[in-house]
């Protein structure tokens, strides 16, 4: 194999090292077919920088733990192919997610993200116990369809990192928490839907969204938090004029 | 005021403003031809109840719409928060309503 | 340089909406003050209008007309997305708004010239 060929088969990967203060460290990583960005990070950790901190679990796009900023965009790294993000120059720049406190290298602290889920009352309030019969829910009802459209969220925080308002307004709940709230407002089995709506419409809630759709652009599972947030805005108006919804 | 109320005011005034702005734009495009004169503007508006209502509503809606918008911009891009920002929003609304009412009177009142 | 994560039509529509909104809000009091001159006398308003009859003012006026159109179209887009039952982002609306603003700007220039 000639040296020139070997050059071409390497990726030039800049990885953020450190916390808020730090620097990019550049690694030459062998380029393989069907390689994901997570594969690249793992290769670096195994072969070049054993102390590199990053997070992943499932490697198949289910757990939502592997999100990072790749060439400027937030992405789930385990399902992002290098061929999709590295240009002809085979460069990658990998940074931690935006809008969350950094811990070390590529790992961020997700505590504020999950605290906002709780502030938006993004948790199910049961109305039955295991002795009760199953609640009959028609999959065809408009409410159930609205809930289903947002239910596949994997909590990856990609949308949270993409949203400008999250970056500008520390109080803003963000697209993921509000999307979750919208699914609950539409879940007829939830025991406190009005509470969810009011939590989602309080200060820093749905009305802070600008409908500009960076969340939709980046959500890896193709959800549309903007549409759910618009639904919350409409419901909050109905609630305001006292129609007692939902 | 709750975020939902501010949002309601902002969108309601936007819905009022949209057709008014369309008429205003159309009028501008017609009126600019050959330059603007006081006689031309005032000849149309003086003593007209219709234009008084049109511009009166326009001023009122804009005086609500603009301060709420600026408040959101300030909230997001500066660290100004809380009651003082609320008062400043109201003060700006009153200022715009006052100056706007004065302008409407200036163009519709028959001297 | 623009952040890659921001470089999509929805973000640019937001920027246009915001910049035009702030500019219009700042212009509004001046507009009211100018019209208020008619309280003094018709001649006072005429003096202002003829003073404003120069290229610099014309360009500023043209800018305001375009900004007003931009703000109107961007606002209509937001309300359409919020209140009409669409689930996609309707990027076509952004293009439509941009075309409208350009058209209004062009008509203004043609008529004023
Ligand atoms: S549409 Fe709303 S939630 Fe989504 S990125 Fe924009 S401001 Fe954030
Ligand atoms: S809405 Fe999409 S981007 Fe946001 S956390 Fe859920 S899966 Fe991730
Ligand atoms: S590692 Fe689980 S989603 Fe990527």
TrEMBL record, chain A:
Pfam families: Fer2_3, Fer4_17
Pathway: Carbohydrate metabolism; tricarboxylic acid cycle; fumarate from succinate (bacterial route): step 1/1
GO biological process terms on file: respiratory electron transport chain; tricarboxylic acid cycle
InterPro entries documented for this protein: 2Fe-2S_ferredoxin-like_sf, 2Fe-2S_ferredoxin-type, 2Fe2S_fd_BS, Beta-grasp_dom_sf, Helical_ferredxn, SDH/FRD_Iron-Sulfur, Succ_DH/fum_Rdtase_Fe-S, Succ_DH/fum_Rdtase_N
Protein's UniProt name: Succinate dehydrogenase iron-sulfur subunit
Key words, A-Z: 4Fe-4S, Iron, Iron-sulfur, Metal-binding, Oxidoreductase
Oligomer and partners: Part of an enzyme complex containing four subunits: a flavoprotein, an iron-sulfur, cytochrome b-556, and a hydrophobic anchor protein.
Family under the similarity heading: Belongs to the succinate dehydrogenase/fumarate reductase iron-sulfur protein family.
Coiled-coil positions: none
Enzyme Commission numbers on file: 1.3.5.1
Taxon lineage: Bacteria, Pseudomonadati, Pseudomonadota, Alphaproteobacteria, Rhodospirillales
Domain 2Fe-2S ferredoxin-type span(s) in chain numbering: 9-98
Cofactor requirements of the protein: [4Fe-4S] cluster; [3Fe-4S] cluster; [2Fe-2S] cluster
Organism: Thalassobaculum fulvum
Gene3D superfamilies assigned to the protein according to its UniProt record, in alphabetical order: 3.10.20.30, Alpha-helical ferredoxin (1.10.1060.10)
TrEMBL record, chain B:
Provenance organism: Thalassobaculum fulvum
Function description: Membrane-anchoring subunit of succinate dehydrogenase (SDH).
InterPro entries in the cross-refs: SQR/QFR_C/D, SuccDH_FuR_B_TM-su
Highest rank taxon of the organism: Bacteria
Annotated compartments: Membrane
Protein name as catalogued: Succinate dehydrogenase
Major localization class: membrane
SUPFAM superfamilies, A to Z: Fumarate reductase respiratory complex transmembrane subunits
UniProtKB/TrEMBL annotation, chain C:
Places the protein is found: Membrane
Chief location: membrane
UniProt-recorded Gene Ontology molecular function terms: electron transfer activity; metal ion binding
TM helices/strands, residue ranges: 21-39, 59-80, 92-110
Cofactor: heme
BP terms from Gene Ontology: tricarboxylic acid cycle
Record key words, sorted: Heme, Iron, Membrane, Metal-binding, Transmembrane, Transmembrane helix
SUPFAM superfamilies: Fumarate reductase respiratory complex transmembrane subunits
Classification via Pfam families: Sdh_cyt
The keyword Isomerase belongs to this UniProt entry's keyword annotation: no
GO cellular component: membrane
Function summary: Membrane-anchoring subunit of succinate dehydrogenase (SDH).
Annotated PANTHER family: SUCCINATE DEHYDROGENASE 2 MEMBRANE SUBUNIT SDHC (PTHR41910), SUCCINATE DEHYDROGENASE HYDROPHOBIC MEMBRANE ANCHOR SUBUNIT (PTHR41910:SF1)
Family from the record: Belongs to the cytochrome b560 family.
Subunit structure comment from the entry: Part of an enzyme complex containing four subunits: a flavoprotein, an iron-sulfur protein, plus two membrane-anchoring proteins, SdhC and SdhD. The complex can form homotrimers.
Protein name: Succinate dehydrogenase cytochrome b556 subunit
Organism: Thalassobaculum fulvum
